[in-house]
């Protein structure tokens, strides 16, 4: 999927743009960001969710790709978020990552997640401390829970947690290592408590991302 992203980076808009493979949308606008890491199978991981070549892969509790048909670990199934969906920095001003996306119907022409699943977006941060930094994300998930603004919920391990305990089941740890609801872990030191495969992405939040709160 990274290859798909890279090929499409060359068709970018000034603010953010999406590639024209799964939908013929080429849009830009303002957006807000949040963070998530719920360990659930990503919404764009379901078959026929969008006209894509292949849904987003989900992983077993061994962090190996599962059958596309496997149900979500957040509802009794065996498919969880793969650890390789965490963000990584290329340099001080540029990172890659994955996001749960919601785009207002006014921009999509009324379309919903089939229009953005697997699309890539360039985000130019416009608020401090991230102003001047850029990130390219692939929409691997959908963020329908808040639908009053364009939103990119960045997949950051330990970046947020909600009431269910899928992360605990996936990694066989206590859910509390993933931090508290709506905040996640509270310091870079706490990243050391996460499963090893997730620690780098957790640290990214305190380094490159400067633990920014809801940057635009
Ligand atoms: C998207 O729209 C912009 C601005 O209208 C244009 O410059 C760009 O070529 C378009 N890209 C694609 C892939 O259609
Ligand atoms: C955590 O997720 C919830 C639910 O999507 C959201 O309301 C909240 O703003 C998120 N917190 C952060 C810091 O992104
Ligand atoms: C950071 O990496 C991006 C992507 O490779 C590149 O376009 C940019 O010039 C780099 N910036 C610096 C300061 O090296």
Brief digest:
Belongs to the glycosyl hydrolase 45 (cellulase K) family. The protein is α/β, with parallel strands linked by helices.
Considering the chains and any ligands shown, give keywords for the structure:
216 residues; alpha/beta; six-stranded mixed sheet; 5 helices; 13% helix; globular; disordered N terminus; binds 2-acetamido-2-deoxy-beta-D-glucopyranose; carbohydrate metabolism; EC 3.2.1.4; signal; RlpA-like_sf; hydrolase
Q: Could you explain how this protein is built, in words?
A:
The chain is α/β, with parallel strands linked by helices and 216 residues long. Helix content is 13%, strand content 17%. It contains five helices and six strands. Strands 1, 2, 3, 4, 5 and 6 form a six-stranded mixed beta sheet that branches. A hairpin with a 2-residue loop joins strand 2 (88-91) and strand 3. The longest helix has 8 residues, at 199-206. The radius of gyration is 16 Å and the shape is globular. It starts with a helix and ends in a 10-residue tail after the last helix. One 2-acetamido-2-deoxy-beta-D-glucopyranose is lined by residues 34-36, 145, 160, 182-183. InterPro entries: GH45_Enzymes (IPR052288), Glyco_hydro_45 (IPR000334), RlpA-like_sf (IPR036908). Its EC number is 3.2.1.4. One of its GO terms (biological process) is cellulose catabolic process. It comes from Didymosphaeria variabile. Residues 32-213 form the Glycosyl hydrolases family 45 active site domain.
């Amino acid at each position: 999927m990274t290859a798909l992203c890279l090929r499409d980076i060359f068709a970018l808009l000034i603010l953010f743009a999406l590639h024209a493979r799964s939908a013929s949308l080429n849009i830009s606008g303002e957006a807000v960001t949040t963070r998530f890491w719920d360990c659930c199978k990503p919404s764009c991981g379901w078959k026929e969710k969008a006209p894509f070549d292949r849904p987003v892969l989900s992983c077993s509790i061994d962090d190996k790709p599962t059958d596309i048909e496997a149900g979500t670990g957040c509802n009794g199934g065996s498919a969880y978020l793969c650890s390789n969906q965490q963000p990584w920095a290329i340099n001080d001003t540029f990172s890659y990552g994955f996001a749960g996306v919601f785009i207002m119907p006014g921009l999509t022409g009324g379309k919903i997640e089939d229009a953005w699943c697997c699309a890539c977006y360039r985000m130019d941060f416009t608020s401090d401390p991230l102003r001047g930094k850029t990130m390219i994300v692939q929409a691997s998930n959908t963020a329908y829970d808040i639908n009053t603004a364009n939103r990119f919920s960045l997949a950051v391990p330990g970046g947020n947690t909600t009431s269910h305990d899928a992360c605990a089941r996936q990694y066989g740890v206590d859910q509390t290592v993933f931090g508290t609801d709506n905040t996640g872990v509270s310091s870079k030191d706490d990243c050391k408590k996460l499963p090893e495969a997730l620690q780098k992405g957790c640290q990214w939040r305190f380094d490159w991302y400067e633990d920014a709160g809801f940057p635009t």
